[in-house]
Amino acid sequence: MRSLYHHPLCPFSRKVRLVLAEKKLEFDEHVERPWECRPEFAALNPAAEVPVLVEEGGTALADSTAICEYLDEAFREPPLLPAEPMARAEVRRLVGWFDAKFHHEVTRGLLGEKVIKRLSQSRAEPDSRAIRAAFSAIHEHLDYIGWLTERHSFLAGSSLSMADIAAAAQLSCIDYIGDVPWDRHHGAKDWYARVKSRPSFRALLADHLPGVPPPRHYADLDF
Ligand SMILES: N[C@@H](CCC(=O)N[C@@H](CS)C(=O)NCC(=O)O)C(=O)O
């Protein structure tokens, strides 16, 4: 059986969980706290980061984009990268946007400062300037999602792609801590409602981390 080492509040792990679920692939779950740097885990991924997918046969794959693209190539249905090269480039640009820019400007400042520092028992206090900067940056990203989805249902066109998965993976982590200002961003909220209501999202909505309960609207499809 395929195994996934992941953390429920890791957006990159969520990306892989969503792709596995879209493709209806079964897997065993291992919740890993990467900051504990378990030697057995570091032996699977020298970067000691989640997610890690151990395929049937024992090969360990690391890095969410490498894993997601492998899954899309090995299990074609439904395709999450378009067939046409320029359309693929646009999906990959958006995956890069959310994995790098959104994560750096928003996820690290909110989730990282407010929750991960506490869970990992870091001795550093949450940085209130980083939190304020992230609260301010999230608006531009939500406006961008609203703009991208004005003409199409999904970020890179009329069907769900890896771009939607990367974006929803980041936003769902922020939503878990109740920090997404949905009421000021109706376009982004409509798009998120579409993604959130897919069966592939169910496992994420059932996440419940001890000591970090989600707000009530988190699992509500009509939030
Ligand atoms: N580029 C990697 C990034 C993965 C990553 O940053 N994972 C974080 C958790 S979200 C991690 O394991 N950090 C190590 C730590 O917290 O010690 C990917 O896409 O998989």
UniProtKB/TrEMBL annotation:
Alphabetical list of Gene3D superfamilies matching this protein: 1.20.1050.10, Glutaredoxin
InterPro entries: Glutathione-S-Trfase_C-like, Glutathione-S-Trfase_C_sf, Glutathione_S-Trfase, Glutathione_S-Trfase_N, GST_C, GST_Omega/HSP26, Thioredoxin-like_sf
Domain GST N-terminal positions: 1-79
GO molecular function: transferase activity
Domain GST C-terminal stretches: 84-221
Keyword annotations of the record: Transferase
Any one GO CC term of the record: cytoplasm
Protein name: Glutathione S-transferase
Lineage, uppermost ranks: Bacteria, Pseudomonadati, Pseudomonadota, Alphaproteobacteria, Rhodospirillales
